[in-house]
């Protein structure tokens, strides 16, 4: 088998694979799944998850209660 025959067979296999994937993607069975996936960016979540909790946690060594507000709690120990 020479290089030209190998390339021809490979081209035929790739064309068949392309047509198979295209047929699968545009089949009527897949349409509801793809329509649902297309609308995912517009879905409204009931709960917004804040993954960065480090900003909302209080890191107070004194154990005082309340919120960590920089206007009220400046860390002055001599007040």
Automatic annotation (TrEMBL):
Question: Which CDD domains does the record match to this protein?
Answer: cbb3_Oxidase_CcoQ
Report the InterPro entries cross-referenced here: Cbb3-typ_cyt_oxidase_comp
**Residues annotated as transmembrane:** 6-26
Annotated spans, Disordered: 38-79
Give start-end positions of Basic and acidic residues composition bias.
Answer: 48-57
Keywords assigned by UniProt? Answer: Membrane, Transmembrane, Transmembrane helix
Q: Which domain of life is it from?
A: Bacteria
Pfam hit, one = FixQ
Instruction: Report what the protein is called.
Output: Cbb3-type cytochrome c oxidase subunit 3
The protein's organism comes out as: Candidatus Halomonas stercoripullorum
User: Species lineage, top-down?
Assistant: Bacteria, Pseudomonadati, Pseudomonadota, Gammaproteobacteria, Oceanospirillales
